[in-house]
Amino acid sequence: MIYIGIIHPYQLIRKPIKILMQNDEEHYIQVEHQIFQPDCLIYTALDILLVDDSNYNNYKKDIHELIRFHHVKIIVLAQQKESINVLHAIQQNVYGVLLNQELGYDQLLSIIHRVYKGNKFISDSLTPEVIQGYYTFYQEKETSDKLEPQPPTHLLTKREIETLGFLAEGLSNPEIASAMRISEKTVKNNIANMFQKVHVNNRNKLVAVAIKNNWVSIG
Fold this sequence. Notes:
By secondary structure, the chain is an alpha/beta fold. It folds into two domains: 2-126, Response regulator (Rossmann fold, 3-Layer(aba) Sandwich), CATH 3.40.50; 131-212, Winged helix-like DNA-binding domain superfamily/Winged helix DNA-binding domain (Arc Repressor Mutant, subunit A, Orthogonal Bundle). The protein is 48% helix and 14% strand. The chain has ten helices and six strands. Strands 2-1-3-4-5-6 form a six-stranded parallel sheet, with helices on both faces. The chain is elongated. It starts with a strand and ends in a 7-residue tail after the last helix. 32% of the residues are buried.
């Protein structure tokens, strides 16, 4: 029996998943919530927790504790590519990241079984080549002396470099704005400017380039 939890604000997403699980005797829905509840002890007994990107971003610390201390396998259901830092999620041992528009309910059972057995699954369109590049870099990083990051002061402004550091840590725009004491609009402008200067079109690729060139420190 695989014990599963679903955290998602939209019933249109939760209901089909719940019906799918109920029709298969190998799965049991232990909990179904709209919003993640940090004090809910039921989460610690789950095998797999399906959680939307908004709840994941808002409760990163608590969810990462479920992974680290209770070995709950997390699958994030993302609304769009830019709504989650895939590289950081993988670094935190998230087992799956699926885009809602690519979520085939007929395939979900298979994905859950793969994750339950310890395999990781990422939606095809979530830049697999960038993710593979991260794995390669991270493996090399573990076997070599850690180098001090060299921020690209010739390319980015001081505030853009600071924003980039927070992006590499997996912070959302509101979290970065709070940490830097600036507006979310300014954060978005900093990120847009970096896209143009680094010649990338999304956050994951920007972070991947920063890691590859040792512009930021991770881990």
